[in-house]
Amino acid sequence: MKKIITYIALIMMVCSCNGQEKEKISYPKEKVMNTEKFDIKRFENYPDVVSMEDEKKLPAKKDTLSDGTIIEYSLWDNNEDGNKTYYTKIVTPPPPALFKKVKDFYPSGTIQKETETFVGQVDIEPFYGSFITKDYDKNGYLLKTTDRSDFDKDLKIRFNDLLKILKTEQMITDNFITKNKENIGIGLFHDQENTQLTSEKIIDNLKSEDCNGKILNANSDFERKNIKVSLNKNIWMVTKDMYPQGYWDYKIDGNTGKIIDVNYRQENRP
Length: 270
Known about the structure:
Helices cover about 25% and strands about 30% of the residues.
């Protein structure tokens, strides 16, 4: 029995160490204060339900700065804190930036948390793309910084390397066309017997969505927000959502960067 307990304890220690290696938590050696405040007066007495007509008369929940940065505001009632109103600000830089910041604020308007996350979607547990998070106390002093950017440290092709590949690799190859000819013919051209499919013809069909022929056009706000990334062991799974033109699914080797599979899925959304 003692051997079993010892064995279980060792397993737990190993798992814990692995988790800590991929999630680094650091604490400030001296006081660091963030003075950023949320303008709570701007949304004072903001109704829970707003009609489209009334929304025009209320303070805007979105601002666009002179450099193209978009700031989105939201507020919500925290059931775990006496239904007090908390606030959120999402700051998205203009293309070709691929990361944004999500800032949460206490009811007083003092910053509570600041998270750097991917502009698109990262479907990887348990952090879902929250790469770096800074937590603050109710006075705005930094409590800790959590860095999860080492989640892929066992791979040769890490997340930032993957983004470079997506921005440089062609989204369509001859092998892809041969394999997906029927699906593409129906999904993009409504023609099952389309025998004249070429990468140029497909790209031209997708130009209305700012497609530049690469897996990811970072200069397109549409494309950068509609890329989904997940990880299956050492294989990066990437979905390029070209609504209403369907989905493009890629499998990329996490150690070589080689694209090992590409598939097209027809659009099934209204």
